[in-house]
């Protein structure tokens, strides 16, 4: 599912109830995603109950190999985003 499909689905569902436009839905979705990104940049954990958690994991520096040349390359340490699925969502997926 792409972001545009998500916006369409949400707009269809809520436009009947509260009269929200597609543009307003897009602003809400963008705000949610930006809030998650901002929290991760600050090193905070984002917890959405019943769905999952977003957090950062640290990777150590390591030596890797360039597959094209076979040359050894130093890879610096870095932080990577990590998503851990929530219990309710995991159970729903496994029932299907």
Give me some keywords for this one.
alpha+beta, HU Protein, Chain A, 2 domains, three-stranded antiparallel sheet, two-stranded antiparallel ribbon
- Gap from first CA to last CA: 18 Å
Strand order of the largest sheet: 1-2-5
- In CATH, what is the homologous superfamily of the largest domain? IHF-like DNA-binding proteins
Low-confidence sequence ranges: none
Question: Which structural class fits the helix and strand makeup?
Answer: alpha+beta
Largest sheet: 3 strands, antiparallel
The whole-angstrom Rg is 19 Å
Calculate the mean pLDDT score and round it.
Answer: 93
Look up the CATH topology of the largest domain: HU Protein, Chain A
Order of helices and strands: HHEEEEEH
CATH architecture of the largest domain: Irregular
What would you call the shape?
elongated
Count of structural domains:
2
Summed up:
The protein has helices at residues 3-18, 22-41, 87-95, and strands at 46-48, 52-59, 62-65, 72-75, 78-85.
How does this model look, in words?
The chain is elongated. The protein has 96 residues and is of the alpha+beta class. The chain folds into two domains: 1-44; 50-96, HU Protein, Chain A (Irregular), CATH 4.10.520.10. The protein has helices spanning 3-18, 22-41, 87-95, and strands at 46-48, 52-59, 62-65, 72-75, 78-85. It has a three-stranded antiparallel β-sheet with strand order 1-2-5. The protein has a two-stranded antiparallel sheet with strand order 3-4. Helix 1 (3-18) packs across helix 2 (22-41).
């Amino acid at each position: 599912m792409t972001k545009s499909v998500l916006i369409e689905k949400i707009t269809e569902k809520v436009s009947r109830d509260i009269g929200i436009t597609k543009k307003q839905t897009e602003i809400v979705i963008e705000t949610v995603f930006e809030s998650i990104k901002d929290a991760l940049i600050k090193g905070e954990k984002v917890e959405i109950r019943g769905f999952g958690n977003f957090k950062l994991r640290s990777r150590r520096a390591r030596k890797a190999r360039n597959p094209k040349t076979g040359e050894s390359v130093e890879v610096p340490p870095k932080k990577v985003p990590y998503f851990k699925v929530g219990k309710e969502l995991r159970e729903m997926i496994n029932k299907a």
